[in-house]
Amino acid sequence: MRPDLPGAELTLWPQWLAIDDADRLLHGLHGEIPFTQHRLRLFGREVLAPRLSCWIGDPGTDYQYSGVRFAPHAWTPALLELRERVQETCDVSFNSVLANLYRDGDDAMGWHSDDEPELGSEPVIASVSLGVTRRFRLRARDDSRRSLDLELAHGSLLRMAGATQRNYRHALPRSKRVARARLNLTFRHIG
Ligand SMILES: O=C(O)CCC(=O)C(=O)O
Ligand SMILES: [Fe+2]
After folding, report:
1. What is the mean pLDDT of the segment spanning 13-21?
2. Could you tell me which residue ranges the Fe2OG dioxygenase domain spans (predicted)?
């Protein structure tokens, strides 16, 4: 499915994984990824991020966080296998993945673009969702009325490419009624 959004390049596979595979991955990864709650600097104050996360990647794919460099965690066997499948579908290679665990509907991610210089000018980002369905919103930088909401279900894959990050921000809003967890993996290529 190719959601139509001017200036963006999106492909969504709503049921990319079979339910059994998705269930197994959710439980396996939940147990083996060393998630932590990071601190964010927000308007000069330190606050705890409203989610747990973990950066995983090939050696050398360090990332900067609040001015500090962090080495990535190592791939697990399950993540390496998943990376293979994602690469095949998306037709690009990835050397890192950001794992986010939203424990319930109070956990969220604010408006941002994945536009760090290390990702290059038109990054391909592949987002695998496991667990409870959550709403993913995209909003044009230059016109907030141009927006799109996608429901990212258990086992779905969303590919963002082209000028998507340049033209749009995205967010995962809080969702009061959600009581279950969602695990999201965004595969990236760091240059
Ligand atoms: O959880 C999601 O679907 C989005 C995650 C995201 O935007 C990110 O990791 O940069
Ligand atoms: Fe993002």
Report:
1. 98
2. 93-191
